[in-house]
Design a protein that fits this description.
With 545 residues, this protein is an alpha/beta fold. It has three domains: 115 residues, no CATH class; 266 residues, 3-Layer(aba) Sandwich (Rossmann fold), CATH 3.40.50.200; 75 residues, Immunoglobulin-like. β21 and β22 form a beta hairpin. α9 runs parallel beside α10. The N and C termini lie far apart (54 Å).
Length: 545
């Protein structure tokens, strides 16, 4: 639970009540927010300081979407006999109610501020994340120290993204906040894989949007495994992609009875995450077909603006949040395409690759119904390494794991490039991915290179670590005119000269500890030198006169 009175109004909107199975749920949409006591000039009444700062930093206006629903509207609906308010959504300006039958709808629809009421009891046949498989075979883990980390089983899935380069520079998610929306986080409160994050207070809050309360540690293991891809810090076994980030853990998916309510749970959790000021949302969920054909998400609706969950995902992106969602595991099934909300146009939809960086057979495909390429990017989802509930590790299959692997990596990239907004983060990584020139609906833009655009300043408190653990490198003269000379304590394998927009101006294979580069063909300006040694990746800024 967020310890901030400024978002109390958000918390109060999440009213949880025990409802019998005979109850019927309806989604009541309001026409406007006229008469609300909240204003855009006083956002501290309903947004945290961190949420306001995100909007200020990235020049995002506080608008009507931010305003809570008019409380008088909610009260008048709630006052109708046999109506129970379950929860309220400010982004969609609506509430979900529980009623014993449809009789109260006559009075509800007669209210002048009510736009519509739609039944919310839709039972899902196929949740796209259920195809994941696991292996319990014991493996000899590759225990190679990179950037001071003994990654264990996670080494290869980290290096596929060139993320070890960012970790090497000290970008490990510090001061970044990630909300994980999933089906439960069983035993995260006791699992030794998460000792580090618990000891440093890195789990900022938890919330169960399915049954109420704040505990999320008793239910499904799916969220715990996804979480481990980002937050685990058990050297020699598994290191997550953002092990020093802060996290919120939100349960939105009920694996026992699948209803459309879970989409609304997700929306409430996303609103909560926004109010708390998170930077990134990572979610490995997807919804497609429901029992009632008239209410199903058919493929023609995959336009990013029809399904409520997709609408909310785009709103979250509009509020400056980097939303990362799994593509789904449906390829080869009756529903091979991406699921909801993976169709949203302003989020990063993640497909799955194997150890050879080839797209897996199960990774869901695009395009969206309006012709956009999906997925956007890919990460390891074929035999990805995840934590078990008892502190071990195992390989697992599914875009449920490629999503958090990439989400954590993107958080580190954003940490290194904080002048970027969420959309520029996505676009930059797409531009510098393996299929950037020829994107397609299986692999998207491909596998991104997280270190292609070097960061300038390592995080505070990391400089000492870097100095003590990295090889000695000397670059002179700087500023340079016609040439520079480099001398390194490790063997230099390759050198790249990269301009400020990420273009490679020069690439040379060296295989020596000393080399001289000719700069005569370079224009004057600032560049980065990216040096790959036999052990590390180093980056230096140079000025060419």
């Amino acid at each position: 639970m967020v310890n901030n009175k400024k978002i109390l109004v958000i918390v109060l909107s999440f009213i949880f009540t025990s409802i019998s199975f005979s109850q019927v749920k309806f989604w009541v949409k309001f026409k406007n927010k006229t008469g609300t006591p909240y204003t855009t000039v006083n956002p501290s009444a309903y947004l945290s300081t961190k949420a306001i700062n995100r909007r200020t930093t990235y020049n995002i206006a506080i608008d009507q979407l931010d305003l809570p629903v008019n409380p008088s509207y909610v009260s008048l609906v709630d006052a109708i006999s046999n109506v129970t308010i379950l929860y309220v959504s400010k982004w969609l300006n609506a509430c979900v109610i529980s009623i014993p039958n449809t009789t109260p709808l006559t009075a509800i629809n007669a209210l002048p501020f009510v736009q519509s009421s739609t039944q919310a009891n839709r039972y899902k046949i196929d949740l796209i994340k259920v195809d994941e498989s696991f292996s319990t075979t014991n493996y000899n883990l590759e225990k190679l120290n990179v950037a001071g980390y003994n990654y264990g089983g996670a080494l290869h899935q980290t290096k596929q993204l060139n993320l070890d380069c960012l970790h090497n520079q000290g970008y490990r998610g510090q001061n970044m906040t990630i909300a994980v929306l999933d089906a439960g986080f069983k035993d995260v409160n006791t699992n030794p894989v998460f000792d580090s994050i618990r000891n440093r207070g890195g789990i900022l809050g938890t919330q169960d949007f399915v049954t109420g309360g704040t505990s999320v540690y008793e239910d499904d293991t799916h969220g715990a495994m996804a979480f481990s891809c980002m937050a685990a810090l058990k050297p020699g076994f598994i290191i997550g992609t953002a092990p020093l980030a802060n996290y919120y853990l939100f349960r939105t998916e009920d694996v026992s009875t699948e209803t459309i309510s879970e989409e609304y749970n997700w929306i409430r959790a996303a609103e909560y995450a926004d109010s708390a000021g998170v930077d990134v949302i990572s979610t490995s969920l997807g919804y497609t077909t429901f029992d009632n054909p008239a209410q199903s998400h058919n493929m023609s609706q995959l336009d990013g603006k029809t399904a409520p969950m997709s609408i909310a995902a785009n709103i979250a992106a509009r509020k400056g949040i980097l939303v990362v969602n799994s593509a789904g595991n449906g390829n080869g099934s009756s529903w091979p395409k991406i699921s909801v909300p993976a169709d949203a146009d302003s989020i990063c939809t993640v497909g799955a690759i194997d150890s050879l960086s080839n797209v897996t057979s199960f990774s869901s495909i695009g395009p969206t119904s309006d012709g956009r390429i999906k997925p956007d990017l890919c990460a390891r989802g074929g035999n990805a390494w995840v934590a078990t509930t008892t502190g071990g590790v195992m390989p697992a299959n599914g875009t449920s794991f490629s999503c958090p692997i990439l989400a954590g990596a993107m958080a580190c990239f954003w940490q290194a490039h904080k002048t970027y907004n969420n959309i520029k983060v996505i676009d930059t990584l797409k531009t510098n991915a393996t299929f950037s020139a020829t994107p397609n609906n299986s692999i998207g833009w491909g596998v991104p290179n997280l270190c292609v655009i070097p960061a300038i300043n390592p995080p505070v408190g990391i400089q000492k670590f870097a100095k003590e653990n990295l090889p000695q490198l000397t670059v002179w003269p700087n500023p340079a005119k016609d040439f520079i000379t480099m001398n390194c304590s490790d063997e230099i394998k390759t050198v790249q000269i990269i301009n400020l927009i990420g273009q490679i101006e020069l690439f040379e294979t060296i295989n020596s500890t000393t080399t001289t580069l000719n700069f005569k063909k370079l224009n004057s300006g600032t560049y980065f030198i990216k040096i790959n040694t036999n052990k590390n990746t180093l980056v230096r800024k140079i000025i060419v006169e």
